[in-house]
Amino acid sequence: MRQQMLCAMVVLCGHMFLNAVVAMADTPGERFRKAIKEIEAACAKRKLDPNEVCGEVARLKPADPLATEEGRFAHSIKIPNPVPDDSGYKPGMTSEEYFAHLCKTEAGEFIYKTVDNVEGLYMMRPRKEATDEELSHLYALEDPYGYVTEGSAEGARELLVRRDGYAFVEEQLPGHTISPAYRHYVARYADNKKTLIGEVTTVAEGRYGYVWRGIVRPHDRELGIVGGELIILGTHSHEVLAVRRGFIRSGDVRNNSTGVWWLGGHACPKGRKGRTDFYTFDLLREVLTPASSSAVGEGTPNAAK
């Protein structure tokens, strides 16, 4: 009996010690802030050449999801399966444990309706090309998961407008109001079999499109985790056809001054056939089947898969 009690005490003490080590360990957020201070201090000690910029990553500010009309629109959309306020975080969770929990309980594809014979798409919130500094910053990108799976608007055009894709893609121009009546300017791109042809028009023809937004909750960024949602919807009705929710984790990169490099982050879901960089387009083509591969009436909605 005494030996069993001694073994139990040893096991209990071991667990307490491990929990204490976890509690004392730096979080990705703490390591990032420490790295930024070191970069700022190093720049302050240097005598800079004229027009030289030192420590660009330290000058970046956290992303403001509501800074633009497109961002405010994206975050105003009500979806059938919103994330809960309680993410399930428990004090003492490591970044790896919390990430695994989010991937298991919240990440995935949620398809409510599909549409056949879609001629073109409307990108209601085009992504800008991210800089290396933004990709190395814990807070500068609102939705790094979506950027990894989709890339910038320029890359999206090339993948969407192709032989097995859509006939055209339209983009919301920054600074112009989104409205069901399309009283704003859009950029429209079509394929002439050699290169994309762009034009600016006041009338958008795409009946279906997609928009993205980041997920903002208390513990995610501190643990080096960011969530993002891609919402596929009707451009007039704003009916939600599908939602993809994913998460990405960084903060453990050793050969980077900040420890963050989103392009090499741990992501979930990883996409069809493991092709993370094609994930967005694979999903769009499943929910909104291009006319080039559809044989039914134009814009025919189907039941959820």
Give a written overview of the molecule.
- The chain is an alpha+beta fold.
- It has one domain (62-303).
- It is 30% helix and 23% strand.
- The protein contains 9 helices and 12 strands.
- The chain has helices at 2-24, 28-45, 56-59, 69-76, 95-105, 132-135, 144-150, 153-160, 279-287; strands at 108-111, 113-118, 120-123, 168-172, 186-191, 196-201, 208-215, 225-234, 240-249, 266-268, 288-290, 300-303.
- The strands form 2 sheets. Strands 1, 3, 4, 5, 6, 7, 8, 9 and 10 form a 9-stranded mixed beta sheet that branches. A 3-stranded mixed beta sheet has the order 11-2-12.
- Strand 5 (186-191) and strand 6 (196-201) form a beta hairpin.
- The longest helix is centred in the N-terminal third of the chain and has 23 residues, at 2-24.
- Residues 1-24 have low confidence and may be disordered.
Structure at a glance:
The protein contains nine helices and twelve strands. With 305 residues, it is of the alpha+beta class.
